[in-house]
Specification:
Blueprint lengths: L1 E2 L15 H13 L4 E4 L2 E2 L8 H17 L5 E4 L2 E3 L4 H6 L12 E5 L9 H10 L3 E5 L5 H4 L2 H9 L3 E5 L9 H12 L5 E3 L13 H11 L1 H17 L12 H7 L5 H6 L1
Parallel strand pairs: 1-2, 2-4, 3-5, 5-6, 6-7, 7-8, 8-9
Helix pairs in contact: 8-9
The structure holds fe (ii) ion (FE2).
Length: about 270
């Protein structure tokens, strides 16, 4: 299994603060069944901008330490890019780290409350450059719960979605959990990620969340979103596409029944 979203690199963001913590986090993920972790520190426009070379260098250090600690797990570089209007220009100039450094996929984060008006433009310009945007934890944006059609339109234009496993525990509240289950149930999720920031105090982590994913989507889809789709990222290949997505619950709404979205908007 491959985790495409994690904050395990020490000292680069609000995630791990020491190599000791990084090793504990990595060990916990390995015990949950992960074989590969893509490290995705937060990248923001501005003074504290994190350059891809720096991400690459710290990833290399962590790889060495993980090997020395005899933890059998692969660590690859990546970034979680907070959206800004010039993001495509920065990508074009080689200033952003793609997932696995394969030059094809960018993990993107949006503001939690208001989705910026320029979001579609940024996605489109990235696609023109041959980059596929992957939206981090779509279920956690309040702004998208109010406008699920917007999310659906993105997916139909080739934007891919990464679920945060912790959303399934109710950590972010019942609405986020319900939204997460709905997206999974409608086959709208392409990847999962731990979004791990620190060492978990409980021994077993992510096992239950992964079982929930498996229960909702079935074995075949589970393999796709935890293994085959992320493998394609790392090979720089295209992840599915061509099918038209729709929301079953939304379709039901049109027949006059109160669907899930009605519940969310209350
Ligand atoms: Fe994150």
């Amino acid at each position: 299994m491959i985790d495409i979203h994690s904050h395990i690199l020490p000292g680069l963001d609000d995630g791990s603060q020491s190599i000791a913590d990084t090793l504990r986090m990595v060990r916990q993920l390995q015990e949950a069944g992960l074989k590969t972790i893509i490290a995705t520190p937060h990248v923001f426009e501005g003074r504290d901008f994190l350059h891809p070379e720096e991400i690459q260098a710290v990833t290399e250090q962590v790889r060495l330490q993980v090997a020395e600690a005899e933890i059998r797990i692969e660590i690859l570089p990546g970034a979680e890019n907070y959206i800004f209007p010039d993001l495509p220009k920065w990508a074009k100039d080689g200033k952003l780290m793609t997932l696995g450094n394969t030059g094809k996929y960018l993990l993107i984060e949006l503001p939690r409350l208001d989705i910026p008006r320029y979001t579609e433009q940024v996605f489109f310009e990235l696609q023109v450059l041959g980059l596929t945007p992957i939206l981090a934890h779509p279920e956690r944006y309040i702004g998208l719960m109010a406008e699920p059609e917007r999310l659906l339109a993105w997916v139909n234009k080739g934007i891919l979605l990464q679920l945060d496993l912790r959303s399934l525990t109710g950590k972010y509240g019942p609405q986020v959990q319900h939204f997460a289950e709905l997206l999974l149930g409608n086959d709208l999720i392409h990847f999962v990620g731990s979004d791990v920031h620190r060492v978990s105090q409980t021994e077993a982590i992510y096992g239950e969340e992964l079982r929930s994913v498996q229960r909702i989507v079935g074995e075949e889809k589970f393999e796709a979103i935890t293994r085959f789709n992320p493998q394609r990222i790392l090979a720089g290949e295209r992840v599915q596409g061509g099918e038209e997505y729709f929301l079953k619950e939304l379709a039901r709404d049109k027949k006059g029944k109160r669907g899930f979205w009605g519940w969310l908007r209350r």
